[in-house]
Structures are given as structure tokens and as C-alpha cells.
């Protein structure tokens, strides 16, 4: 089957420019452009620089692609760049390397483990929320990135890195995640030119690797009997693999930890940032969240055990993930000649899917651009039409980690504070591997000033 056979079967989205194709539309308007794609049908072609990608717009076709991860393997513009950043870790590795890695990493993401991680998540959210003062204007991206990074560091290493190392890691991760997406849109040879941006990206990558490798090596002995995520990885054992591959090597552990940071920190931070943004614009929803959460917690800190009762916070997070699925553009490569629905898909074809495209379809979600946590009352997300964490064997391993972290952090923050807008302006999404609300600032207002420790001081800034 030739590439042109597939090309004729699938329409090309309008507006492709010479050289860049649809890349500008995607970067300039990452919300509107993808939402328009289902107009073309179940599948549509878009051009990103020199590459043509088939985008799935239909939930069932997207699911068929995701469930057959041997045929629709990790690859395509996003993963080719991401692989340069995190090697063959769990997110990026091809199908043939995947199952062993997944089996070895899975023990770090079980129910028993979440009990341990949540104390780190809650302590970090408390610490951040109590560092604010009444009336303070906070930079929401800075706050949420620091929050998720810090609690991941605690959950992974069961320790705190020094503030300087932690700050450097946050900065490096931001440069790394931003770089992966930008590089996807530019021809590979330009990524090798020593521009200041490329140099900064390479430096951030190299520093991240060194920091994490050092932490793995220096913690191996100390962590052997602990509950930290990294200790679980270091001790993990896979009887289904050949003898020499039964455990993860130090290098592999470092690679997976870097992978978890790249896959989990900014995504969860974005989710929280957009959640706070939507809450700030919906005073009734925010009030309902506060009242419900305060009623469940009754002055106690939030906890893993109370999680099942925090139902409204859960609906808020579920709705935010519908409207703002952080991993919004993901790619695949066809490993062999195949079909998707009626369309022939020759080996080597690049494909993409976006939870954003599916989850903002008006035929699937009435009034799709409105934040309505109530739509989840008495309703479970559908496995085809709600895919913020993907589906199939490559589904997010950190889905519960992220959901729990977002729910408990939100409960902790909104018990103490209300978040008020300081402008009517709608924040433009900054296009990264995830979409963050660029420059979003909110004012924190104490529900009960007596409950919050109010140290005077400068606004919280990175
Ligand atoms: C709101 C937060 C998050 C979102 C929206 C998200 C989304 C996703 C999505 C959509 C995928 C599938 C990618 C694909 O189909 O190509 C994925 C995979 C993955 N995610 Fe997440 N993720 C989040 C948080 C996390 C966290 C906290 C971690 C780790 C602690 C994590 C680790 C991973 C890993 C390792 C994979 C690859 C799994 C595999 O291929 O076996 N993610 N994530």
C-alpha cells in the first residue's frame, strides 16, 4: 500500500501554509483549530512542517487505534522528539520494549502505594496554601508547577532536594517539556543548530539526567527498605522477563524517574491551574466545592481515606480534565499496512489523537465549552469519549496518581482560600507538550482569616 493511497482517502484540513503546514494554526490557536477538525469527518490529515499526520476525530476509531498498540506504535512527530528527551522510558519506548517496563513499573502505582504518596501530596499542598496571605495575587502556573514538582520529588525520593536543586529541576523540566513540543514543529536539522534556545534545551536535558542519576545512585542503599516510589522501582522484579532483564538497572530507574517527571509534573500542574481558573470564573461552583469539602473534612486535613467522600472535588477534577486534557496532542506510527475504519493506512503513516478534540465535541458533551462539574453527578466517564489518560496498554500509568493529587490538593487549597479573578481576560494557552494558561494570576481570599497563617511577605514567585 502506498502513502498516497491513504492520502486520497482522508481529507486534508484547510489552511495549510507552505513549509509550516498547520503548525502555525496549532500553535496560535491550540483550542480552536483542533475543535474544528471533526467537521472533516472521522479522520482528517494535517501537516506539521514537512510531516503529514492523520488525526482521529471519532471516539471509536481513536479507541481502535489506541487498543492496538502493536500496529499503531509509539512514534510520529511528538514521540520522536520526546524520545530524544527521555530515551526509551515507559512513555516513549516502542511496543517491543513496553510490556517488561510496564510490569516493572506497575508495582509503584498500586493502591497500597498511593496511601504512602498522598501524605507527601497533602503536606506539600498545605505548605503552599499556608504560605499565601489574604489578598495576595499568585502566579498560578508557578504555584501549581512548584506544588506538583515538590510533591513528586517527595513521593519519589521520600526526601526533599535542596531548594536550589529543586528550583533548578523545576526550571529544567519547564524548558525540557516546552522544547519537546517546539521541536516537533520544526524540521529536525534546525534542532541541531546551536541557537540559544537549542543550547538551553540541551543543557536543561543534560542537567536533569545528572541530577536524577545522582539521586538514584546515592539513594540506592538508603532507599532499599523504604516506601518511596524510587525504592519500589529499585526493588521491582519481573519473573516474566529473561533472567538478565528481570530487574531495572540503575540507568533504567533514572530513565523512568525522568519519564515520570516529564509525564507527570507539568500535566498535573496544568490540570490544577485550569481548574483554579474555571473556579475563579464560577463563584457558585467554587462556593459549592468549598461547602462540600469543608463538610467532609470538618477541620481535619484531607487524606487518602477521606478521598471517596470528596465527591464534588472529584467531579470538578473530572470536568477540568475533560475541558483541558493536559496531554492534548499525541502521535503514533503505523508499524504495518493496516486500515482505520474504511481508510487504508500504509506502514509508516503518522497518526495523532487528541482527547481535546473528542472531549469538546458538542454531539458528545452538550455545551462542551462550559465548565459544569454537575455533568458527572451519577455518571461515570465513558471509556471511548473520555480519554484524558489515553486507553489500552499505553494508558497513563499515573492516572490515579494525578487524579488523587489534583483532588487532594484542590481540597486542601479551597478549604482555606477562595480564588478570585483579577481580570476578565481569558488566558491564552502557552503551547507546550501540555497547554498551560499563560500568565494566569488570581487573588487568594481567606474563607476564614483566623484559619490561615498569614505571614506578611512578597507574593509567591518562582
Ligand atoms: C493530569 C495529569 C496527566 C495526564 C493528563 C496524563 C496523560 C497521559 C496520556 C494521555 C498518556 C497516554 C499517551 C499516549 O497515548 O500516547 C499518558 C501516558 C503515561 N503517563 Fe500520564 N498523564 C498525567 C499524569 C501522569 C503522572 C502523574 C505520571 C507519573 C507519575 C504519568 C506517567 C505516564 C506514563 C509513564 C505514561 C506511559 C504509560 C505506558 O505507555 O505504559 N502521567 N499520560
Residues in helix, %: 40-55%
- CATH superfamily, please? Cytochrome P450
Number of structurally distinct domains: 1
- The radius of gyration over CA amounts to 22 Å
Would you count the extended β strands for me?
Answer: 12
Q: Give the neighbour order of strands across the main sheet.
A: 1-2-8-5-3
H/E topology pattern: HHHEEHEHHHEHHHHHHHHEEEEHHEEEE
The computed structural class is: alpha+beta
CATH architecture descriptor: Orthogonal Bundle
Oligomer: single chain
What form results from the Cα inertia axes?
globular
Percent of residues in β-strands: 5-15%
- Give the uncertain stretches in residue-range form: 454-462
Number of helices: 17
**CATH class wording:** Mainly Alpha
Find the CATH topology. Answer: Cytochrome p450
Q: How far apart lie the N and C ends?
A: 53 Å
Major sheet: size, sense and barrel closure?
5 strands, mixed
Average pLDDT, all residues: 88
- Which molecules are bound besides the chains? protoporphyrin IX containing FE
In short:
Helix content is 50%, strand content 11%. The protein has helices spanning 3-9, 23-28, 32-36, 59-67, 76-86, 95-105, 111-130, 140-157, 163-185, 188-191, 196-223, 229-235, 250-281, 283-297, 311-323, 355-359, 399-416, and strands at residues 43-48, 51-56, 72-74, 137-139, 330-334, 338-340, 343-345, 350-353, 417-421, 429-431, 435-437, 441-446. The protein has a five-stranded mixed β-sheet with strand order 1-2-8-5-3. Strands 4-12-9 form a three-stranded antiparallel β-sheet.
Amino acid at each position: 500500500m502506498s502513502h498516497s493511497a491513504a492520502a486520497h482517502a482522508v481529507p486534508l484540513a484547510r489552511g495549510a501554509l507552505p513549509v509550516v503546514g498547520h503548525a502555525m494554526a496549532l500553535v496560535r490557536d491550540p483550542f480552536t483549530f483542533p475543535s474544528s477538525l471533526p467537521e472533516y469527518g472521522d479522520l482528517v490529515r494535517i501537516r506539521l512542517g514537512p510531516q503529514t499526520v492523520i488525526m482521529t476525530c471519532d471516539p471509536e476509531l481513536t479507541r481502535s487505534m489506541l487498543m492496538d498498540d502493536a500496529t499503531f506504535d509509539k512514534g510520529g512527530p511528538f514521540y520522536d522528539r520526546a524520545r530524544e528527551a527521555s530515551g526509551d522510558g515507559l512513555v516513549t519506548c516502542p511496543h517491543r520494549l513496553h510490556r517488561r517496563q510496564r510490569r516493572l513499573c506497575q508495582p509503584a502505582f498500586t493502591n497500597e502505594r498511593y496511601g504512602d504518596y498522598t501524605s507527601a501530596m497533602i503536606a506539600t499542598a498545605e505548605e503552599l496554601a499556608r504560605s499565601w496571605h489574604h489578598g495576595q495575587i499568585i502566579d498560578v502556573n508557578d504555584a501549581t508547577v512548584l506544588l506538583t514538582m515538590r510533591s513528586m520529588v517527595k513521593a519519589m525520593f521520600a526526601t526533599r532536594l535542596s531548594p536550589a536543586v529543586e528550583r533548578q529541576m523545576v526550571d529544567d523540566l519547564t524548558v525540557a517539556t516546552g522544547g519537546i513540543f517546539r521541536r516537533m514543529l520544526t524540521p529536525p536539522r534546525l534542532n541541531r543548530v546551536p541557537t540559544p534556545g537549542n543550547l538551553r534545551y540541551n543543557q536543561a536535558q543534560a542537567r536533569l539526567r545528572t541530577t536524577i542519576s545522582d539521586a538514584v545512585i546515592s539513594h540506592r542503599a538508603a532507599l532499599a527498605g523504604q516506601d518511596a516510589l524510587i525504592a519500589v522501582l529499585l526493588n521491582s522484579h519481573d519473573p516474566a522477563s529473561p533472567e538478565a532483564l528481570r530487574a531495572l538497572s540503575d540507568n533504567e530507574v533514572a530513565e523512568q524517574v525522568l519519564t515520570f517527571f516529564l509525564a507527570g509534573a507539568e500535566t498535573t500542574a496544568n490540570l490544577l491551574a485550569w481548574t483554579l481558573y474555571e473556579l475563579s470564573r464560577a463563584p457558585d461552583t467554587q462556593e459549592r466545592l468549598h461547602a462540600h469539602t469543608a463538610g467532609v473534612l470538618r477541620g481535619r486535613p484531607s487524606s487518602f481515606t477521606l478521598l471517596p467522600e470528596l465527591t464534588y472535588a472529584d467531579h470538578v477534577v473530572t470536568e477540568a480534565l475533560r475541558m483541558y486534557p493536559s496531554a492534548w496532542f499525541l502521535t503514533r506510527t503505523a508499524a504495518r499496512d493496516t486500515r482505520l475504519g474504511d481508510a487504508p493506512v500504509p506502514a509508516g503513516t503518522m497518526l495523532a489523537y487528541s482527547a481535546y478534540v473528542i472531549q469538546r465535541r458538542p454531539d458528545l458533551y452538550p455545551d462542551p465549552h462550559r465548565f459544569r462539574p454537575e455533568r458527572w453527578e451519577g455518571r461515570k466517564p465513558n471509556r471511548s469519549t473520555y480519554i484524558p489518560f489515553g486507553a489500552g496498554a499505553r494508558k497513563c500509568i499515573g492516572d490515579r496518581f494525578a487524579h488523587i493529587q489534583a483532588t487532594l490538593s484542590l481540597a486542601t487549597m479551597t478549604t482555606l482560600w477562595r480564588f478570585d479573578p483579577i481580570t476578565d481576560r481569558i488566558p491564552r494557552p502557552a503551547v507546550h507538550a501540555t497547554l498551560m494558561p499563560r500568565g494566569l494570576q488570581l487573588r487568594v481570599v481567606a474563607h476564614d482569616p483566623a484559619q490561615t497563617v498569614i505571614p506578611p511577605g512578597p507574593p509567591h514567585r518562582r
